[in-house]
Amino acid sequence: MSALYDLHRMAKRLRVSPYWLKREARVGNVPSLKAGSKYLFNPGAVIESLSEQAGRKTNSKGTQK
Predict the structure, then answer these.
(1) I need a surface site. Which of 13, 34, 46, 50 has the fewest CB within 10 A?
(2) Domain residues of the chain, as ranges?
(3) Residue 60 pLDDT exceeds 60
C-alpha cells in the first residue's frame, strides 16, 4: 500500500492549486479520504482516476467531444 499524501503535497504533484483539488475531492471527482478537516489522497488512485476522466472527455479520434 502506498503512502497517503496531504492536500498540498498531492496538489504539488499534480501541478494544480490546492483549492481546485479540494473542490474536486469534495464533490467526488477525485478519490480521497477525509480525516477530520483534512483531505488525504492515494497518489496512484488519484492519477488513475484523472486519467480515466481525461479519456472519457475525448472521442476515438482524440478530439474533444
Answers:
(1) 34
(2) 5-56
(3) no
- ∠ at Cα 48 (46, 53), nearest 5°? 95
Sign of dihedral through CA atoms 22, 24, 28, 32?
negative
Q: What is the pLDDT of residues 23-59, one digit of tens each?
A: 999 999 999 999 999 999 999 999 999 999 888 766 5
Q: How do strand 33-35 and strand 5-6 relate by DSSP bridges?
A: unpaired
Structure confidence at residue 61 (pLDDT):
56
> Residue 8's Cα: distance from chain center in Å?
12
Q: Where are the alpha helices (DSSP H) in the chain?
A: 7-14, 18-26, 43-56
Q: What is the pTM of this model?
A: 0.80
> Which residues have a Cβ under 8 Å from the Cβ of 6 and sit 6 or more positions away?
38, 39, 40, 41
